[in-house]
Amino acid sequence: LFISRFHLEPAQDADVGSNTLRTYALNKNEYFVLHVKNDKDGTKVPEIVLQKALDREKQSIHHLILTGIDGGDPMRSGTAQITVKVLDANDNAPVFEQDLYEIKVVENSAPGKIIQMVKAIDLDDGVNSEIEYSLGSLTQEAIKQLFSIDSDTGELTISKSLDYEMSSTYKFDIRARDKGAPVMEGHCRVQVNVLDMNDNAPEIIITSSPKPVPEDAPAGTMVALINVKDLDSGVNGNVTLCLCCDQPGLIKIRTSGYFSATPFLRTLLHVSPQFQREMSTEWR
Could you tell me which residue ranges the Cadherin domain spans (predicted)? Predict the structure, then answer.
């Protein structure tokens, strides 16, 4: 409310003298009190005065009863019902249902897929409660290329396929702004966790090219050193090696495990005790 004092029409009493209107009374309430003014002609004019700030979100309508009382004997009175409707002010910011939305998305999901619907509530009324959604003002441009949000519904979609091997997690803010004056806004945090798919084939890298091996080389002599990696994660990134050879059993595989700082599986190719030149001068 923009004013705190409400002037009311005075009650009418056809009697005169001591039998005419003497005073007013207002029902007990938390927000309004009664004030009576005396005009020069003796007319008593009632006013209700706001003594405590109103909150439309707590109570939008107040019902008051004003009673006019005369001075006669017996005393007579009349009442008037007063309805006070509280107009909305934009004094509430939108609030999201969740402070943090954690979302799981499988990599390579089709662009345009809805991955989450966020929702904010504004306790105000009318345009003051109408909300528009957007990505936070500090959102990185790279994330804006990957995600978009419907300004009316709050539907969050992916604009491009996500690649787990490029990034497994994305974090950003979503903003909800109302249409009141002044504009008020609220924020929530979004964390998108990308789930890995088995979309990468193992890669074999020869780090030590095979060299001629003497036929009397002892068993276990290294023939070649290779590294194997798979960019997928978890079981999708585990690699099993097998060797296809013209003479099975002559060349064997020995792995020395993954390096702690790299995704490579170090693998040694070495000769077996049955290795002889007379069997073949070359194996593939």
Answer: 11-96, 97-204
| CATH number among 3.40.30.10, 2.60.40.1120, 2.60.40.60, 3.40.640.10, domain 5-85 | 2.60.40.60
Segment 91-137, tens digit of pLDDT: 999 999 999 999 999 998 999 999 999 999 999 999 999 999 999 99
Closest CA to 242 of 223, 255, 260: 255
pLDDT in tens, 226-258: 677 767 676 666 766 666 654 554 455 555 554
Write the CA distances from 138 to 75, 134, 171, 173, integer angstroms: 71, 11, 11, 8
CATH H superfamily, domain 95-195: Cadherins (2.60.40.60)
